[in-house]
Structure formats: structure tokens, C-alpha cells
Amino acid sequence: MKVRIIGAGAMGMLMAGRLFQAGVCVELVTRTIGQANQIRTEGLKLSESELQSEGTGAILKVPALAMEELGRSSVKSSINVNPEAGTDDPDVIMLMVKQTSITDDLAFELSRQLTPSSRLVCFQNGIGHIDRLSRCISLAQIWIAITTDGAFKQTDHLVRHTGKGTTWLGPVLSNTSTMEMEAVHNLQNLLNHAGFSSMVSNNINSKVWNKLLINAVINPVTAILRVRNGALPRTPAVLPLMRSLLDEASLLADRLGIELAADLWEQILLVCERTADNHSSMLQDVMAGRTTEIEAITGGLIQAASGLDLQLPTHSVMYATVRSIEQQMEII
Fold first, then answer.
1. Which helix (H) or strand (E) holds 251?
2. CA-based nearest residue to 323, from 297, 86, 130
3. 298 backbone dihedrals φ, ψ, rounded to 5°
4. What's the whole-model pTM score?
5. Which residues of the chain have pLDDT under 50?
6. Are 209 and 243 in contact (CB under 8 A)?
7. CA angle (70 as vertex; 182, 91 as ends), nearest 5
8. How far apart are CA 174 and CA 92, in angstroms?
9. What secondary structure, in 3-state letters, does the chain show?
10. How far, in Å, are 26, 288, 299 from residue 21 at the CA level?
11. Using one digit for the tens of pLDDT, what is the confidence trace for 114-159?
């Protein structure tokens, strides 16, 4: 199986490094030529512990190229792409960019890279991106992945695995064939072989909403307070706020007929524990002065609720606060 990973952020680099270590034919597509060049010359450095310094950990010669270099044979022949792969066409494209990077132009570019037999696996937080991608790509070719693994990108070629979690896989369409589900299980086996804990779901939309609520409870709070995930359950005053966020979103899911895990509150606390040393992706964005995914996460919930004339007051405060932080960063 040949895997192409689009997006060399923390999770994209972690995935590429793990798959490469497992002997998978993988290539990592970066946004900039500078990052691709650095990975090509210095290797991708993968650290499995926060205690490891920048000079330690595995140094992996992961094939890397920038998006604009795709299709250039002269570039690909020089970056250790496995000649046994035969074709440049990937069997699986893992889309590991943030929701804010999914544009109509990117959707069109992805449609050009897909063959009828290849599949696009979307790792995004939040909701709404599948609708945008489906304007150019058949829903039958789109799978969704939900992961609670944590990763932190220290430099353009150094990534640290900060928390072990679970990755759920499943096709967007629920009425898929046995052959399609076998293909999903093949990818699951590949991820397990690479050291991830992955499972297949026949109702991935429910998993999407479970992860959405986990993100909506943890990420904005960590971004506003500027604390690591593990600080939340250890701060008594924060727990009622988190509980209110979960209760409001759970009511919305119930009104939409979406099934949530009965132990979702316990799952949220467990994610905080397992990724205690991790900065949430939203906090990482705030610290780096980037636009966050608040629109796709909390904004997605607020938009869904507005269609039902349902108010989410606590989420609205979180949304307004994070958007204010973003606007202050733009002014600075």
C-alpha cells in the first residue's frame, strides 16, 4: 500500500514517521519547499518522549516534497521514493491539514491526485469540511479518521509524540460494500502495525461528534487559560465550565438524533490524563499566532444549534473569547 500524507504539521509528521518505521511506502507532502528540503537533508526526527532532547530520537529519511513539487519526476527520483511502488498514484491519501486550510482549490487538487480505486482519509477536527470536499470528490471515496493521539511539532523536522490515544476509521457513507469495509480494515491493520491503536467503526459520524465534543470542551479552555491538557481536571474551578460545555453540546446532539458515548465525560477526563503534557492544537495555534479551528469546532456547534433555535450560551462565550484572542493577534 502506498500512502501519501498531505500536511506536515504535528500529526502529519508523526504519522509519516511511524509508517516509515514500519516499512510502509509513504511520502510526506509539505506546504513549503523549505520544510520539504529540511526533512530531505536532515531527516524527520521523531521523539516518543518529552524527556528526549532535540538531538535525540529516531532520525528518519522520510520522502518529503512540497505540494508544488508533486508530479515532478526529477524531484521524486531524488527523495528516496520506493522504486518498487511502480506508480506515483497513492492507494491512500491522508489529509492531515487543519480545517482552515481546506479550500475549494485544495479539494480540486486532491481530486486530481485520486484514482477511482484510491481513497481520501480525512483527519480533521470539527465539522463542515466533508461538504466542501464532496464538491470535487465522490463521497464514496472519502473516509474519516478520528484520533486522540497527541503530537507536538517542535521544529519543521522535529515532532514529539505527546500522548497515546485511539484512532477510529470509517467510510463517510454508511451503506458501503463488504469489499470497501475490507479496505478500511486493511488500513486499520497498517496503522496498528505502525504502532497506533486503531479501530473501525460502521457509524463514524457518531465518532466524529464524540471527538467534536471532546475538542469543544478541552481546546477552547486550554487556549484561553494557556495551560496544558492535564491542568484542566486538576483545576477545580474549571470542571463546572467543562461540564457545562458538554451538557450544552450533548443536548444539541440529542436534538439532531446523534448518538454519543454514555461515558463521554469520563472519556474527556481520560484524554486530559493521557495527553497531560500536551498543548492542545488550539493552544498551539494561539501560541504561534495562527488562526485557530474555533470556527470548525465551537462555531460548527453554534451554527448547527441555530438551525434548531437552540442556544449554547457557554459555547458562545468560548467562541467570542477565542475569536477576540485571534483578532488581538492580528492587530499585534
1. helix 238-255
2. 297
3. -70, -40
4. 0.84
5. 51-53, 73-75, 77, 81-87
6. no
7. 10
8. 19
9. CEEEEECCCHHHHHHHHHHHHCCCEEEEEECCHHHHHHHHHHCEEEECCCCCCCCCCEEECCCEEEHHHCCCHHHHCCCCCCHHHCCCCCCEEEECCCHHHCCHHHHHHHHHHCCCCCEEEECCCCCCHHHHHCCCCCHHHEEEEEECCEEEEEECCEEEEEECCCEEEEECCCCCCHHHHHHHHHHHHHHHHCCCCEEECCCHHHHHHHHHHHHHHHHHHHHHHCCCHHHCCCCCCHHHHHHHHHHHHHHHHHHCCCCCCCCHHHHHHHHHHHCCCCCCHHHHHHHHCCCCCCCCCHHHHHHHHHCCCCCCHHHHHHHHHHHHHHHHHHHC
10. 10, 29, 38
11. 999 999 999 998 888 999 999 999 999 999 999 988 888 999 999 9
Three cell numbers written together for 88: 506515483
Which single residue is written with the C-alpha cell 487543519? 98
